[in-house]
Description:
Layout: E1 2-5, E2 8-11, E3 20-22, E4 32-34, H1 58-61, H2 67-74, E5 79-81, H3 84-90, E6 98-100, H4 102-108, E7 112-118, H5 129-141, E8 146-151, H6 155-166, E9 170-176, H7 177-182, H8 184-192, E10 196-200, H9 206-214, H10 222-234, E11 239-241, H11 248-267, E12 274-278, H12 283-297, E13 303-309, H13 314-317, E14 319-324, E15 333-338, H14 360-367, E16 372-376, H15 378-392, H16 398-417, E17 421-427, H17 435-442
Parallel strand pairs: 7-17, 8-9, 8-11, 9-10, 12-13, 12-17, 13-16
Antiparallel strand pairs: 1-2, 3-6, 4-5, 6-7, 14-15
Helix pairs in contact: 2-11, 3-5, 4-15, 5-6, 6-8, 9-10, 11-12, 15-16
This protein binds pyridoxal-5'-phosphate.
Amino acid sequence: MRELTGNCERDMKPSHSFSYRLNLDKNDIPRNWYNIIPDLPFRLDPPISPATKKPVTFEEMAAIFPAKLIEQEMTTERSIEIPEEVLEILSLYRPTPLVRARNLEKYLQTPARIYFKNESVSPAGSHKTNTAVPQAFYNSVAGIERLTTETGAGQWGSALSFACRKFGLGLRVFMVRASLEQKPYRAVFMRMFGAEVASSPSALTASGRAVLERNANTPGSLGIAISEAVEEAASRKDTNYALGSVLNHVLLHQTVIGLEAKKQMETAGERPDVIIGCHGGGSNFGGIAIPFMREMLDGKRIEFEAVEPASCPTLTRGSFEYDYGDQAGLTPILKMYTLGHSFVPPADHAGGLRYHGASPVVSALVKNGIAKARTVGQEEVFRAGLIFAETEGLVPAPESAHAIARVIRKAAELKEEGREGTILFSLSGHGLFDMSAYQAFLDGTINDRDIDPSSFGRGIESLAS
Ligand SMILES: Cc1ncc(COP(=O)(O)O)c(C=O)c1O
């Protein structure tokens, strides 16, 4: 029996295989994070201070970050010990399962073996908890009383709310307006853990008010919400700022994903040929991919794919230059792929991927050909999300469904070529708060948009010289 639902023709015949999952023991949670920077065959350009236009100093960063995180941001050590207090909280949900998606393989009739690392089992429902916990910990031991942050999908705001509650910190979350309207219950989740949630742009900050004056109907963007959170943190001694992606220390914390996956793949007797992760600011993709990159740098063949929305094509259509991480120009200036800090992406249903910039590490990996970047359109993303929900029984976050869409294409390629291959991807989060997005898809109201490059903003290339 075949049925047409929304944009998606589906085979309704039930088909099942026994699931294969690999759970590690609690003692197998990694005790150290892996820093790829000393192993890279190139050097990263330094972050630049927006005030002096010179490389940013420790003291400047100390206005909004605790010393330990600044050290981690700048370190060239390969391995950094995870504090016991952090491990205790991570052990609520780590190690996360590695699952072979046998039912998806069967549905696709592909010779590919497909594995996913299930980060959706964290308290907030995504990988974001992996860095929220250490960030809250280091701030609390530094005597900070409250944090500010931005959130796009609501996943990062939820994760940090949970972590701040664990360490007795207050939190204000600037949630991108479009996302707040699409998923109001994410805000309720954050409030359950004691956070205050403001719709961004808000009247609470000068940068928010400036945007509202220019366009009262703006959907908001991660770039604007970051400006608001940084502005508030910089103006209060008791308050620091926490970023959910992009920066080196965030990627570092997320390497627990790939480190566990590596052990699990080895236990399964597998070696991935392709590793796929969706890309917003880069920490999810970096988290699953980076621990496997050492092998690639040693000459083994592995492909790495970062997947972004066609409506916010930072890595594929942005330029590699110095730019601000936020809209108002308050953050350090980073060498990265950027669509320009003034670019406001359309209010598509993948709030966590609507960011004009990207992690400097991931940007450099793409620039140097170590990782590839791909885009997918919304219709393909939601079709993939539905197929995954039906076959594997898990509703993926729209962000994660970007990776699944690429996995499905890759599996089809292997089928066409009659080749076997092992694909590993990160299921970065669940989509149980994303029902309005799935509803729009089932109702047939989700359309792909082609982005006009004239809407891209400008970076500030002149700083690089
Ligand atoms: C479920 C999910 N996956 C992926 C991402 C993108 O994360 P990153 O910024 O680490 O690339 C987000 C961001 O919010 C998310 O919520």
